[in-house]
Amino acid sequence: MVKPEVYRSLGLSDEEYKRIIDLLKREPSTTELAMFSVEWSEHCGYPRSRILLKLLPKKGKYPTLIGEDSGGIIVDDLAIIFKMESHNHPSQIEPKQGAATGIGGIIRDIFTAGARPIASLNSLRFGPLTEPYNRYLLRGVVDGIQFYGNCLGVPTVAGEIYFDESYNGNCLVNVMSIGVAKKDELARAFARGVGNSIMYVGSSTGRDGIGGCSVLASHEFKEGEEKRPTVQIGDPFTEKCLIEATLEALATGHVVGIKDMGAAGLTCSTSEMASVGNSGMEVELQLVPRREADMEPWEIMMSESQERMLVCVKKGKEKEIEKIFSKWDLHAVVIGKVTDDDIVRIKDKGKVVAEIKAHSLTQAPVYDMPYKKPAYLDDLNKLDITKISEPKDYNGVLLKLLGSPTISSKVWVYEQYDHMVQTNTVTLPGSDASVLRLKGTNKAIAATTDCNSRYCYLNPYKGAQIAVAEAARNLVCSGAEPAAVTDCLNFGNPERPDRFWQFKNCVEGVASACKFLNISVVSGNVSFYNESIKGVVNPTPTIGMIGIVDDAHQVCTQYFKKEKEIIILLGISKEELGGSEYLKEVHGQVKGDTPDLDLWLEQAVQRTALDAIRKGLVSSAHDCSEGGLAVALAECCISNKENMVGAVIDSLTFDARKDAALFGESQSRIVLSCSKKSVHKIRDIAERFGAPFQIIGRTGGKELEILVGKRKIINLSVEGMFERWIDSLQSLIMA
Amino acid sequence: MLKAEIYITLKKTVADPQGLTIKHALDSLGYKEVEEVRIGKLVTVKLNINDKKEAEQRLNEMCKKLLANPIIEDYSFKIEEV
Amino acid sequence: MKFGVVVFPGSNCDQDCFYVVKDVLKQPVKYIWHKDTELDNFDCIILPGGFSYGDYLRTGAVARFSPVMDSIIDFANRGGIVIGICNGFQILLESGLLPGAMLRNTNLHFICKYVYIKTENIKTPFTNLCKKNQILKIPIAHNEGNYYIDDDGLKSLEKNGQIVFRYCSPDGDVNKESNPNSALANIAGIINREGNVLGMMPHPERSSEAELGSEDGFLILRSILKWLGSK
């Protein structure tokens, strides 16, 4: 009889333990208990989120592919495969290895689908940099990403970094990978065909990360330090060899199915490959290559040693596969075979140590969790704007915002990432979205990650919708048609009704916005329990979105290109200050409701911008986000350091307070610049789509001047703005 | 069986920015007495050899050939029985 | 003219070099696995960038012992054209085909960005289409690009015109501010005494097409082709 303390410490409830006994019709062995605990954890089995995740649309404007471990879309004869995943808890404990192994895992999900990884992105969130530990985390995470990603030769092309008190004690590290394959060369993650071999490939197995999955991912942690030994160590060189060997092996046609050994290693890969294939599987643990002596069967089954995969190989073709892997100095050994029952049978020295129906492992219990709107929210949403004093020094406010860590340039970070390898990066980091050409075609893909979690905190449903809308807007500004989404849902403890209410509303928000914009959600990840004694993270449904550029030569960047061009604002500036960076940085308040989002207006603005870009009418396009219109204009002036172009904004009209018009974060706004002769054509397009259109000024000079009426309220040199914006993050990190 | 610990450091004449960075960090933590910091690599190897003289000769070879780059690095090692 | 791109375990710019030769320069090209030793059919060997053997011990230190390297040394000694880019440059240094060594960038960070380099020697197989002191805009991406050689070695490089490229400002000033990794004397690329082996940290294959932001690197590839054609 297993003691309740034991299964509870593995994260299983009394009911779940009873269910295991019902399924097995006996007491589980230690190995079996460990296997159930990881397969039924939120990380693998999604017991608490599964009902809601069904709301996310699986269809969109491009044909959608949903694989076992990733998903994608079909564009002509290519499959674009992508997925985002969290590595929050491991990174909070050991930032360098946590982030590095996060990249390793997500990239394995892409190439085990048969796609060559072509780009990585990341969305990072930390507590304020005034805390030394947060600086340590940021430096460590960036170091991990560069250490792993650069060695692999997969460019890290885009990302975002946010800072907020809610991430004190719980940083978020969400990593996304994109791969490309011929659509008929994709691989599946199943085991089929009785007698086919199960091969273990890659690094040997040690005790790394044992219990990492269940313990790290399903419990709030109190003391990070003492859990350090279970952190997995990344080996990017081996992973690089694995990529090449795997793609070579898949090309032989001898591979039936393949799966990464990620969370819960062998447990996950054996049970899920058997379950998806409606097969059984028998494995002998003595055949598993090992790095450490005297490992118990359950330790081998739970190990999260990195850079390993399980492959189902056609009988008789094992030698050919082995030859490919040994060319790259990698293990490839037969450890078992596909059987004709539906049972995963694990043996150790011939003795059965686990014998479980594959489906009972992979069909985790499903819980309908209770939810309740947090009591504090009604108060929080009340913002009396008349109590917010208008600034006297608008120049000072703009400079302050440009220097705020969330808004300031991330050049210190992305210059540490190889963002050019593979020679596809047409639009480099530092614009609204990065663009990668697809060699051999005229097309390109654009990619971005987005989520303003402060909005989601104040209004989860609308905040999540805005995350989707803004991601799409960023892609449009780069000249791409928004195509599909991967989401990484980071929340607190789902067993608390207030947290689950946030989760429910965010998922519904993502689903509704994606449906409206006709964008499918092809893959994703849920990360719960992002809380510590320091509090809970803001609800953070990170959206990774890719878009398609039909003509790779018609891409657009955010910065002004030359003097004497016309500056246009699409959209409307309303009197909205709730949740803004301005309200927080200048007035020290996180309050109010999030800005409004009218998806019809959003769509009109996006279609106008995209149509104008595709017709070659637009010189630059930039969306208004954190910091509002003034920050957007400043960024248009300064984000190309080799050719900074000033602007005079003298025809701005709005129906709001000046600070709201300039720093408020009204949604669905895009700043365009174009030549004089293109203006009326863009106006016509805007009229056709019903997008509000106004000419607000012109480019030129070495200053950004913004006039309200006849009064110049902002007048700053581009050099001065640039200096504040470019150095701020680095000086905060190095403090 | 013998065990050797091989230390590889940058030559004195070569700048060591890692060492300088750590020196500054120690300094800011109040360890003002730290005069110099040099960072190096430690390589441990186990040898299926029992003769120390022979081990020394082999280790010298390994260091010159692969483990250290004589243009920028110095090495030293100590051998013990295990 | 036939180009060969060497693939070491951990090379990651091999496919980029292959692509640029085949699809941009439009010349025949083959991969050379690091265990292959047959180089007779090649006119130019490219050692690409990347992290051969993970760069775990020291950049290029392990790759230098790959079987292909003895053949490459022979090939170079017979006057064959060899270009090492980034990790390829580091391997050339470790193998002794070029003098000096690489240290870590002094800011201790990997640096990926466009830089400017000045072409100081145009009488080489790699730069014959450049103008004297032509400034090239070309990206770097490395952890260890801080070139080092002792005083006598530096004097010898200077005297023999072996310094082909130096980091400079957009206007061509060779100064400290324009030196991304603190390389000695702003050295970005050198040739051997005979002039047939070039090592450079910047990536010409990443700057050979306008849509990537610069075509300046293509001058180097076209120079090689011209030199081979006139031989």
Q: What would you say this structure looks like, in words?
A:
In chain A, 36% of the residues lie in helices and 24% in strands. Chain A is of the alpha+beta class and 735 residues long. Helices cover 34% and strands 32% of the residues of chain B. Chain B has 2 helices and 3 strands; from the N terminus they run E-H-E-H-E. A 3-stranded antiparallel beta sheet of chain B has the order 2-1-3, covered by helices on one side. The mean pLDDT of chain B is 91. Chain C has one domain: 3-Layer(aba) Sandwich (Rossmann fold), CATH 3.40.50.880. In chain C, the strands form 2 sheets. Chain C has a 9-stranded mixed beta sheet, with helices on both faces. Chain C has a two-stranded antiparallel sheet with strand order 5-8. The model of chain C has no long low-confidence stretch (mean pLDDT 96). Chains in contact: A-C, B-C. At the A-C interface, helix 8 and helix 10 of A face helix 1 and strand 6 of C.
Characterize this entry briefly.
By secondary structure, chain A is α+β, with helices and mostly antiparallel strands. Chain A is 36% helix and 24% strand. In chain C, the strands form two sheets. A nine-stranded mixed beta sheet of chain C has the order 2-1-3-4-11-10-9-6-7, sandwiched between helices. A two-stranded antiparallel ribbon of chain C has the order 5-8.
SSE order of chain C: EHEEHEHEEEEHEEEH
Going by helix content, strand content and strand pairing, the class of chain C is alpha/beta
Largest interface: A-C, 31 and 32 residues
- Residue windows where pLDDT falls under 50 for at least 5 positions of chain B: none
In N-to-C order, the SSE pattern of chain B is EHEHE
Backbone CA Rg of chain C:
16 Å
The total number of structural domains of chain C is 1
Rounded mean pLDDT score of chain C: 96
CATH superfamily of chain C: Class I glutamine amidotransferase (GATase) domain
Spatial gap, N to C terminus of chain B: 6 Å
Strand order of the largest sheet of chain B: 2-1-3
Radius of gyration of chain B: 16 Å
Strand order of the largest sheet of chain C: 2-1-3-4-11-10-9-6-7
What does the largest sheet of chain C look like? 9 strands, mixed
Secondary structural class of chain B: alpha+beta
**Basic shape of chain B:** elongated
N- to C-terminal separation of chain C? 11 Å
Q: Please report which band the strand proportion of chain C falls in: under 5%, 5-15%, 15-25%, 25-35%, 35-45% or over 45%.
A: 15-25%
Number of strands of chain C: 11
> What would CATH call the class of chain B?
Alpha Beta
